[in-house]
Amino acid sequence: MLRNFVQAELHSGPARVRVQTYNYDTPSEQTRCPQHHTLTLMTSRRRSGWRGYFHRPQQPGRLFAFGDLIFVPAGVSIHGSGPGGPQTMVACSYARGSADALEMFEQGWDDRELARCGDLRSDRIADAMRRLGEEAVNPGFGSDVLVDALTTALPIDLARHFQDVVRRSVPVKGGLAPHQLRLIEEYVREWPAGGVRVSDLAALIGLSRGHFMRAFKQSVGKTVHGFVEGVRLDQAKTLLAEGEMPLKQIAARLGFANPASFSLAFRRMTGDTPGRYRTVRKGLN
Predict the structure, then answer these.
(1) A Gene Ontology molecular-function term (predicted)?
(2) CA distance 201 to 243
């Protein structure tokens, strides 16, 4: 019997989707280190007793029980053991650097945070994985567009799911405390009159401009400009996906002089026009 039977496979941009049945040893114990960020949804009924841990240098990590939805960051070793037998799954993988939203997973995480990857509890992500599996096995009219939309949205949904984890994992020593980062993010989202200035952010938490810029970069891993740009982009995506506000009003709300400049900035960061992004997101809801 073949150990790994691939039922269907498809590619969309940087993403690869596979529907496969893997025949594990009985019982099973193995260690793997994927070189791509990999989301896996188990679609067959699995016997209880599956356990695992993410391998840390020179020592095992925190033991956890596997859920049906698992994420393994690229380059991180995972050890699993269980009763074995055949398991059918849908796997979606992305190469490193292929999606901006996945960059956060290339930073060092502690055992508690990694353990959460072994049992993701997100109906939204699980549903997207099921739909990808269905399209891989039985593609329909417009399948290429749907698969492109799903594989584009998955990294964003995954990053949002772990947003609270990332905040807790920010190094505090020599950097900024989590409550300071939350205060800064809230200030940026409120869009103060006159726009955001670094000196105002520094004053908000009682630091000099120079100290603030160094501490912020150490804590967040990006410049203040990059952070503000990301927050604004998230706001733009929310406004496009969740309402019918005209592009002209969205552009004005986010500080752009006209819709054309907003569209240019949005496309530069996402590769999509605001109109196409809105259409795709509404199609997923």
Answers:
(1) DNA-binding transcription factor activity
(2) 30
Say if residues 61 and 112 touch (Cβ distance below 8 Å).
no
User: Would you list the domain boundaries of the chain?
Assistant: 4-142, 168-284
Ranges of H-type helices in the chain: 111-116, 123-137, 143-161, 163-169, 178-189, 198-204, 209-220, 224-242, 247-253, 259-270, 274-284
Q: What is the full DSSP assignment across 94-115?
A: E-TTS-GGGGGGGS---HHHHH
CA atoms of 49 and 195, how far apart (whole Å): 54
Determine the Cα–Cα distance for residues 136 and 130; give it in Å rounded to an integer: 10
Burial 124-162 (b: 16+ CB within 10 A, else e): ebbebbebbbbbbeeeeeeeeebbebbbbbbbbebbebb
- Domain 168-284 sits in CATH 1.10.10.60: yes
pTM > 0.70: yes or no = no
CA dihedral 112, 115, 117, 119 (to 10 degrees): -120
Report the distance separating Cα 84 and Cα 50, nearest Å.
8
- Residue pLDDT, tens place only, 30-53: 888 899 999 999 998 777 778 888
Phi, psi dihedrals of residue 2, rounded to the nearest 5°: -65, 140
